Amino acid sequence: MQQWTEQLSMHAFNKPFRHQITFNNRLRTTGGRYMLSTHHIEINPKQLDYFGEEELKRIILHELCHYHLHLEGKGYQHKDRSFKELLTQVGGSRHCQTIPGMHKPLPYKHLYECKSCSRQYKRKRQINTKQYVCGGCRGRLKKIQENR
User: Fold this and answer.
1) CA distances (Å), origin 101, targets 50, 106, 110
2) Total Cβ atoms within 10 A of residue 1
3) Cβ contacts of 130 within 8 Å, gap of 6 or more
4) HSE-up of 29 (CA within 13 Å, CB side)?
5) Residue 103 above 70 pLDDT?
6) What's the whole-model pTM score?
7) Which residues contact 2 (CB under 8 A, 6 or more apart)?
8) Strands annotated E in the chain
9) Residue 117 has pLDDT above 80, yes or no
10) Hey, which residues are catalytic here?
11) What pLDDT, in 10s, does the model give residues 8-42?
12) How far apart are CA 108 and CA 117, in angstroms?
């Protein structure tokens, strides 16, 4: 992968990639990341497993945009115009695809109900029922369930 990235860098940017690129199995919600302090790139190997080499190439190009712009002192963040323009020039992906089963919704822990209108509120964190009221009718809330 190191050689392939060096070739992609020369072909797409006409600039060498002089640092390391590695797979990181701990990455879950991202396709890859560029490390500002070391200038190394880490790639999620599950992207290759699920979506193939073409998607991996687009992720590497994305990270190389961060890499080259940062080393040149230009805007390297997603919000910067220089990043967006360079990304479209080289054909990198703006967002990686979602790996099936990686984004599990967290269940709520606390369930509250309005005493007046019976509207229910699901919350991950516990709330103070003396401080908060129903958003619909301004009635008092009561806790009816706590999941563990």
Assistant:
1) 12, 13, 24
2) 15
3) none
4) 3
5) no
6) 0.70
7) 20, 21
8) 21-23, 32-34, 41-43, 110-114, 120-123, 141-146
9) yes
10) 63
11) 999 999 999 999 999 999 998 899 999 999 999 99
12) 21
Q: What Rg, from alpha-carbon coordinates, does the chain have? A: 23
How many of the other CB atoms lie within 10 Å of CB of 131?
7
User: Over the stretch 121-139, which tens digit does the pLDDT of each residue have?
Assistant: 999 999 999 999 999 999 9
Residue 148 has pLDDT above 80, yes or no: no
Structure tokens at 30: 């991202």
Do 30 and 44 touch, CB atoms closer than 8 A? Answer: yes
**Nearest residue to 145 via CA among 128, 130, 123:** 123
Which tokens in the block code for residue 145?
């369930």
> Rounded to an integer, what distance in angstroms lies between the CA atom of residue 52 and that of residue 80?
29
Burial of 31 (0-12, 13-18, 19+ CB in 10 A): buried
Tell me how long the chain is. Answer: 148
Q: What is the longest distance spanned by two Cα atoms in the chain? A: 68
Using CA atoms, how far apart are residues 145 and 20, in angstroms rounded to an integer?
Answer: 51
Of 105, 98, 106, 110, the C-alpha closest to 147 is 110
